[in-house]
Amino acid sequence: APPRAKAMHGVFLLDLNGFKQINDIYGHAAGDEVLVVVAQRIQSVMREGDLAARFGGDEFAILAQHLLGPESATLLARRVIQALESPIVLGKKTHRVAVAIGIALIPNDASTREESLRKADVALYRAKAERRSAMRFFEEQMDHHIHEHDRMARELHTALVENAVVTMFEPTVDLLTSEVVGFEAVPRWTHPELGEIPPARFIALAEEAGLIHDLAERLLRQACKAATSWPTNVRLAIDLFPAQLKDKDLPVRILGILAEHGIVASRLELEVTESALVHDVGAVESTLGTLHDAGVRITLDNFGTGYSTLYHLRKCKLDKIKIDPIFVAGMGTEREKARLVNALVGLGHGLGLTIAAEGIASESDGSSLAHNGCQEGQGDWLGGPVSAQTTLSLLGGAFASREPRDRPEAPHPAPTPRLATPAAS
């Protein structure tokens, strides 16, 4: 029945945070007991005439009829949150659960049962992001965002199938000899309507949509195909995404792709971020350890921005660290940045690692890095990402034409300015 005049119905979707751990640790029988207590507590705060139901798993729903407005819906949601704040004691075990609540109002947000449930679910998605007890009302803007997110995920899948996500190559240059010693493979997606999508955006989208393994494998295959045309001393670098580190079959797949293209493992550099290393050092150690033992070089990317410790650096088999651009930018004029970069370089050398820097945008930064012992660099001053075809021009042209320097003992002389990178084709 429709709500009374100046009133509204409220559809509440509830999801328990922390319930999965109870099932995993104490078993499903304990989980069932917790659900019974949760249901009793929800029932205890409901008004006469309201309906509650369990949808399955740890999901519940409430239909609150004839509310006087959003304020009344808020009060009910707060009562539910408060009812579940107290620990649930079963025997000698104490369990804690939090609750996320999504709310849609009828007729304000929806006019049908299906629409109200969908919009309450949209609101629940926002509430669950809090990772604690929280309630959220449906918002059109969030609904639009979810629709847009879903559309982009489907279009990314199509782009992968149609090979519309292409691989570009950013040169890595020896700061002392001015030679290109490798290329980092980076994906580029040009959307037919929105233009070029930043990699950080569509990589995150691929992770959420379960497309990251497909994206990573296509990227590696395209990169290996290009690398077959390079001199055998030129290395190929590629990012490992956090989700890949959980894949126990990853080493077999990567080594298989290298073998298919006739590329020896020592030419491949896999880059893992500090945040991924710290988040799951066990997976990193196991997965990357296998690859490292096969000859693949391991690079710690974005060095200095995460929370890695000497323990992490020693535990994982690393060959190289890349200093994050945030520290490189302006280091020629900011003493604190220069000191920090020098400290990172010193730490890397102390661990016997190759030191590289990203985001080199000026001659002064490049000179300072080389002078203080940084061996390799990337950035606008050294050339941005180019096509596979253009890599051949770089290897045979601007950088390779320079006379190599003998490696002097520190302090090192500054490198000469770089020539412009040939236009991407």
Question: Which terms summarize this structure?
Answer:
425 residues, alpha/beta, 5-stranded mixed β-sheet, 15 helices, 42% helix, disordered C terminus
Describe the structure.
The chain is of the alpha/beta class and 425 residues long. The C terminus is likely disordered. The protein contains 15 helices and 16 strands. Strands 8-9-11-12-13-14-15-16 form an eight-stranded mixed beta barrel, surrounded by six helices. It is elongated.
Helix content: 40-55%
Which strand order do you get reading across the main beta sheet? 8-9-11-12-13-14-15-16
Low-confidence stretches: 398-425
Biggest beta sheet summary: 8 strands, mixed, barrel
Beta-strand percent range? 15-25%
Structural category is alpha/beta
Please tally the helical runs, counting DSSP H or I stretches of 4 or more residues.
15
Q: What is the rounded distance between the termini?
A: 64 Å
Detail the topology: elements first, then pairings.
Blueprint: E1 8-17, H1 19-26, H2 28-45, E2 51-56, E3 59-67, H3 70-83, E4 88-90, E5 93-95, E6 98-106, H4 113-128, E7 134-137, H5 140-161, E8 165-174, E9 180-191, E10 195-197, H6 199-208, H7 212-227, E11 235-239, H8 250-260, E12 268-273, H9 274-279, H10 281-293, E13 297-303, H11 310-315, E14 320-323, H12 325-328, H13 335-350, E15 354-357, H14 363-371, E16 376-377, H15 388-396
Parallel strand pairs: 6-7, 9-11, 11-12, 12-13, 13-14, 14-15, 15-16
Antiparallel strand pairs: 1-3, 1-6, 2-3, 4-5, 8-9, 8-16, 9-10
